[in-house]
Amino acid sequence: MSEDLLPIGRFARLCRLSVKQLRNYDDLGLLAPAWIDPSSGYRYYRRDQARDALSIGLLRTLEVPLPAVARALSGDAADALREARDRIEDDLLRRRRALHLLDRVLAGGLPEARVRTVREPARRVRVAAEAATPTTIARATSACVARLLSGGTLEGALVGLFPLDMTDGFDVRVAMEAADGADLLPGGLFAAATHVGPYEEIQLTVYGVLAWIGDHGHAPGGPVREVYLDDPAATEPERLRTQVLIRLEDA
């Protein structure tokens, strides 16, 4: 065994990591020991591996996920770290929005919505879809709207379509009523309420509508529809009106 090798305990102290972390990084293929004693299974590391070990530790304290750390160590550092930064920025934005909504709830209590039932006819629509996560809904919705308006004119109301269950990944869809639309937006009986305020606060009204549905013994059917009644380019965020519609599945 070379004198340049350090046992895992000494190497861990040098790199400000725990022995458990080093073993985990070995199991994940991030940082393999230079030599493993075949009789004891004890791990040894070269001194020149310390830089990689310290890099892993630093990036993990910065909340860079392990797959991105692996890419950074393999030479794809700029793109991997830029993507990690974007994810952290998205998370910060989500938390700021959550903090704002929590302040609203603290000030006014859990939201109550003025709900009515409306019967909607089936409509011919054009639909644009975009993959999204809970932190990229606004970006995905804007991309869908841009594609629908790329033809030039707004033919009918824009309707955002969002799943009832916001999982880690889903499709955001936006529909535009059009006589030659290739898709059919089903009709039926809906619980409806009008949200007034910024789009990022619509979930408070969605909560109110779902609570009303539960209180009245109905079952909700997705997707949640958001009918955008005002042009955000010409209307202050606090005055934006959005109709929230959730189909009564049992009606």
Automatic annotation (TrEMBL):
Q: Where is each HTH merR-type domain found?
A: 5-75
Pfam families xref list: GyrI-like, MerR
Keyword set for this entry? DNA-binding
- What GO molecular function terms would the record report? DNA binding; DNA-binding transcription factor activity
Keyword Cytoplasm set for record: no
Q: Does DNA-binding appear among the keywords? A: yes
Specify the protein name.
Answer: MerR family DNA-binding transcriptional regulator
